[in-house]
Amino acid sequence: MSTTIPTIDLSLPRLTLVELIRTVCLTHGFFHIISHQFPPLLKQEAFEYSKRLFALSAAEKIRFKMSENHYPGYEAFQSYSLDSTNTTADLNEGFGMTAVCYDDETRWPVETAENQLIGFKVCCQQYHAAMEELSKTLAGYIAEGLGLEEGYFEEYFVKPMTQVRLIHYFQGEEADIVDDGKPRIGAGLHSDWGLFTILSQDNVGGLEVYDLNSESLIPVHPLPDALVVNSGDLLARLTNGVYNSSQHRVLAPPPGVHRYSIPFFCQGNPDYLVNVLPLSKDWNEWVQGKSKCKEAGSGVRKWEPITVSAYLLMKFQRSKQGGKKTAAA
C-alpha cells in the first residue's frame, strides 16, 4: 500500500518523464517534482509577502476583497466550504490573482512602507509568469502521455484564466475552537477545477490525497525545494474519466500554528472547449485494465462538452453556496 506520493525528477529523459506522469495520473494524480528550475528566491519572496499580507488587520484586508462579480482579491476567513458535507466553513483565508492579461480584474492592495507590501504586485506577477511557463512544460509531457503532439494544448494557454492563490490556514480565535474530537479542516475534500495544479507549500504539512488503490487518505509531506503537482477536473473530462481528478483535503494546523501555501491553478482560455480528446487506438488499448474507470477506451461519454469559463463558474458558485450553507447552519 502506498503511504506517500511519488517524486519525479524533471532532469530524467523525456520518454521516462512522460511514462512516469502518465502512470501517476491513473491513480491519485499527485506527485512531487524536483529539478524543475522554478526560481527558489522568487518562491521565498512570495511566501514572505504572503505572511505580511495576511498579517494586515481585517479592516485593511477588506478594502481589496473579492468583488461581487467574482473579480479576484482577498477572501475572508471561512468564506466557503469546498466539501458540502462539512458542518463548518473551511479554516483559511486567501488572496487570488489573475494572469497579467487579465490584470485589471485583480483587486490589489495599496503598497506602502507601513504595510511592507511595496513590490508585492511585481513579485506576484513574476511568480505567476514563471509558474505559467512551468505549466506549459508539464502540459507537453501530459499530451505526449496521451499519444498526442507535445504542443497539443497550445490553444488552451492562449490568454488562459490561470490563477495564483495565496492561502493562510489557521484555527481562528481560541474562543472559536471546539474540541469535538474531529479533525479541523483547513480545506474540505475536493478536486481542483483546472487541467492541473502546481503547489508550493511551507513545512507545516496537513495536505492529504485520496489514493484509489488503498482507498485511503495519504499525507503529502513537504519536501525541500519540491513542488507538488496534481491532476484536475478538466484533465479528467478531457480523458473521459480515465485520468483521475485528485480528491484531496488540508487539515488545519494546531491552534497557534499557521500554514501558508501558494497553488497555481492551470485554468485555460475561457472559450476553450473541454471535450473528450482524440485519443489513439493504441492509447485506448494500453489503458484497458490499468484504470479504475469502467468506461476507459469504451467510447461511452461521461460528460457533455463545456467551455473552461462555464465549468469554472459552475464550480465557483457551488463552493460559495457551500459556504453560505454552513454559515447559516
From TrEMBL:
Residues 160-268 form the Fe2OG dioxygenase domain. PROSITE patterns: FE2OG_OXY. Keywords: Iron, Metal-binding, Oxidoreductase. InterPro entries: DIOX_N (IPR026992), IPNS-like_FE2OG_OXY (IPR044861), IPNS-like_sf (IPR027443), Iron_ascorbate_oxido_reductase (IPR050231), Oxoglu/Fe-dep_dioxygenase_dom (IPR005123). Pfam families: 2OG-FeII_Oxy, DIOX_N. Belongs to the iron/ascorbate-dependent oxidoreductase family. This is Fe2OG dioxygenase domain-containing protein.
